[in-house]
User: Which sequence fits this backbone?
């Protein structure tokens, strides 16, 4: 009996000790690996990379694009609760105007909340708002002589959206809301264009069943497609001015009878046949639309909706125009943002568009995306490729993108500058209009992450700062004191040129009332705001070093900052910021130290209970010898054996 018990105890103790050793070593290994990785990361981020950049500043952009700073680096602010992209300028030309504004809608897996975003040309934050849910297509447009920032906001679906369109004035107040007309129809995210007629062009996606037996798409399940619709809406009255549905013409025009679309599984469920993504209107009252999944541009009659001509598509299809550029003018694929940039009464027309050239399904195609200008002669029915705009490293954008052009007096002369947004790839560029060469390029996410689309913007537009003189009405400048510095910012204000720091001066000396009858009568303590410093408004957030008033008979008990315009006129004052008291600081420090001590003691108690060889609490750890363990185990075995009468001595239960 004793021999068997000894053997069992040895096995039990060996098994128990083995697991203790394994767990102990695993815990130490995990701590070691995590600590080593953290040390390597910290050494790289705060020592190696800054050292390399200091030696060669050009390395900063290279390391950034390789995601050495993270898959989506961000800038954090003391005086603002949201972040902004930590952008990098890959190329710069002084003619690009660093003060100009760039309008974007920030989206992607790395973005915690899709937002409306305004940056300057070098990527510094000007305005960000996440108050509208999922937004898209932020730009500046004019309506009845007044400038508005316009955008779509609503529910994002697989390939489209369901929402409405907003127009905000220079105080960031909602002035107009435009909605799609028709039962069960919602405004789509792809287009919101304000016309010179006081109307808005919008896109609508709608599920519809059609008989596709006479097309090349007869295999579409149940015949359900996502229809491509555009509407023209009177902004003031909300009335429907014009509507066009692509499905109404699918059987009458061979150019509509082949699609590269795919299925979507949302409320618009069906085959995304057309994927309309831009609408423009010319001086004749006709419309130019882009159908991404057909690789075509259509020119629609404003009188009866008939298709006057089509451009692009499969090279084997009959073409309405002769491509005199060896097929290059009509070779665009998966395109976006087709615009009529000039036209005349002699039949000449120029169109800009963003040629994605690839989609997600054929990303292996090494061709980079492009901005394009295409010129048509409507009388001779010829088309030619005029200028191509490429990025520095041939960026490939599988979706989205835009081309913004400033025409020269509405003629067919080449524009002075062209601004290109690279859509699903987080970059924007400015090009010379004469030859398309890159003048400036800014990245707001690493180029190595473009394939995964961690951050992106549907479109982007460059706006002169003078065109958007914004002063927010419902929020003031925000001032925050941290570590002896005061940080101030005013989200969205574009007219601030400098900041005036003021301190609330409290006199500790006794003031004597000159009218008092008795000498020595004590007066009242006095307070006054005193100008301390002035600083130019550069970047989103300005930092002031607070003065040291120790040892003086007067001290500043609070601070505020006043926003000044170009003429030093007062725009608005910030909140009053008070330095943290010594008592509050001490309480915070002791609270942190107390938390560390309590956590350490708690871990020590846990380790001691499991007897892993650690003892953080004196007197709490009772380390038992091997004989103590053995004796305890034998007593348990004897009690168990004596309690079972059906087994003889020496038997094992």
Assistant:
């Amino acid at each position: 009996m004793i021999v068997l018990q000894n053997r069992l105890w040895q096995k039990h103790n060996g098994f128990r000790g083995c697991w203790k050793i394994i767990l102990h070593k695993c815990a130490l290994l995990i701590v070691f690996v995590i600590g080593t990785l953290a040390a390597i990361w910290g050494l790289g981020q705060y020592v190696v990379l800054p050292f390399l950049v200091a030696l060669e500043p050009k390395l900063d952009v290279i390391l950034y694009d390789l995601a050495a700073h993270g898959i989506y680096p961000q800038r954090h602010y003391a005086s603002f609760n949201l972040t902004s992209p930590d952008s990098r300028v890959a190329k710069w030309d002084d003619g690009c105007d660093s003060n100009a504004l760039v309008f974007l809608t920030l989206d992607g897996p790395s973005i915690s909340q899709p937002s409306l975003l305004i940056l300057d040309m070098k990527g510094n934050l000007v305005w960000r708002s996440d108050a509208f849910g999922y937004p898209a297509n932020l730009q500046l447009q004019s309506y009845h002589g007044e400038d508005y920032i316009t955008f779509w906001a609503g529910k994002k679906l697989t390939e489209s959206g369901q929402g409405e369109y907003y127009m905000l004035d220079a105080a960031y107040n909602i002035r107009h809301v435009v909605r799609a007309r028709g039962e069960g129809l919602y405004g789509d995210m792809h287009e919101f264009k304000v016309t010179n007629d006081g109307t808005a062009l919008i896109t609508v996606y709608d599920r519809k069943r059609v008989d596709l037996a006479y097309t090349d798409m007869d295999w579409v399940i149940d015949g359900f497609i996502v229809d491509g619709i555009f509407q023209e809406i009177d902004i003031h009255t909300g009335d429907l001015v014009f509507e066009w549905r692509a499905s109404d013409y699918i059987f009458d025009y061979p150019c509509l009878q082949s699609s590269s679309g795919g299925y979507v599984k949302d409320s618009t469920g069906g085959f995304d046949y057309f994927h309309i993504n831009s609408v423009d209107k010319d001086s004749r009252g006709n419309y130019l639309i882009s159908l991404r999944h057909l690789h075509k541009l259509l020119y629609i009659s404003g009188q009866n909706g008939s298709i006057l001509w089509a451009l692009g598509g499969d090279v084997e299809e009959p073409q309405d125009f002769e491509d005199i550029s060896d097929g290059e003018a009509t070779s665009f694929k998966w395109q976006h943002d087709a615009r009529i940039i000039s036209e005349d009464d002699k039949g000449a027309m120029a169109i800009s568009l963003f040629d994605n050239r690839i989609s997600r399904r054929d990303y292996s195609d090494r061709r980079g995306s492009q901005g394009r200008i295409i010129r048509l002669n409507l009388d001779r029915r010829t088309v030619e490729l005029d200028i191509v705009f490429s990025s520095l490293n041939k960026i490939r954008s599988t979706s989205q993108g835009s081309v913004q052009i400033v025409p020269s007096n509405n003629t067919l002369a080449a524009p002075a500058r062209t601004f290109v947004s690279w859509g699903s790839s987080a970059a924007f560029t400015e090009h010379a209009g004469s030859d398309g060469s890159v003048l400036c390029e800014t990245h707001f996410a690493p180029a190595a992450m473009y394939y995964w689309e961690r951050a992106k913007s549907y479109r982007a537009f460059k706006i002169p700062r003078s065109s958007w003189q914004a002063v927010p009405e419902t929020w003031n400048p925000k001032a925050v004191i941290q570590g002896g510095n005061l940080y101030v910012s005013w989200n969205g204000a574009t007219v601030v040129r400098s900041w005036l720091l003021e301190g609330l001066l409290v006199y500790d000396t006794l003031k004597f009332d000159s009218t008092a009858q008795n000498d020595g009568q004590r007066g009242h303590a006095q307070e006054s705001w005193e100008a301390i410093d002035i600083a130019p408004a550069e970047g989103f957030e300005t930092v002031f070093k607070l003065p040291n008033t120790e040892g003086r008979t007067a001290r500043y008990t609070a601070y505020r900052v006043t926003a000044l315009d170009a003429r030093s006129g007062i725009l608005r004052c910030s909140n009053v910021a008070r330095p943290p008291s010594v008592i509050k600081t001490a309480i915070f420090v002791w609270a942190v130290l107390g938390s560390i001590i309590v956590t350490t003691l708690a871990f020590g108690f846990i380790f001691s209970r499991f007897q892993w060889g650690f003892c953080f609490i004196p007197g709490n750890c009772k380390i038992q010898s091997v004989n103590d363990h053995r004796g305890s185990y034998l007593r348990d075995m004897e009690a168990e054996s004596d309690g079972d009468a059906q087994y003889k001595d020496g038997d094992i239960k």
Remarks:
- The radius of gyration is 35 Å.
- DSSP finds four helices and 37 strands in the chain.
- Residues 2-55 form the longest helix (54 residues).
- The chain has a mean pLDDT of 84.
